[in-house]
Request: fold
Amino acid sequence: MSRRAAFALALFAAATGAAAQQHAQPQGPADGDLELGKFLSETCVACHQISGRMSGAVPTIVGFPPPAFVEAMQQYKNGLRPNETMRTLAASLSDEEIRALAAYFGSVKPTY
Ligand code: HEC
Reply:
């Protein structure tokens, strides 16, 4: 192998190694997948108004800071918040899906 090829290979290994490491890092709530969040939000907007307006007993969830959103969802999931509907919904979502929803709803601006 020429020195040049060896050097290129070493660079490649360093680059892919760095990418793999980045991927393995725990993701924060703001790192959710927006597209996935938008897709999953279809279920939520049956009750929660996408405009951000309150509707009856259903609170607004748009423009929520993602960490607070994730925390609320975890509290439904682990039973700290008692609402039966939200508990069932949150229990059916993975942590990745909750992060995605947090990122999506956090990015939506109230429009009313
Ligand atoms: C059947 C109606 C309904 C659906 C569907 C629904 N929610 Fe809710 N959600 C509620 C109600 C009612 C509350 C208030 C519950 C309470 O008092 O704890 C709530 C509360 C919340 C809260 C807490 C808000 C706050 O101010 O603390 C979050 C976050 C939330 N919902 C997210 C979601 C997400 C994400 C989805 C979709 C996966 C969803 N909801 C689907 C009815 C619904």
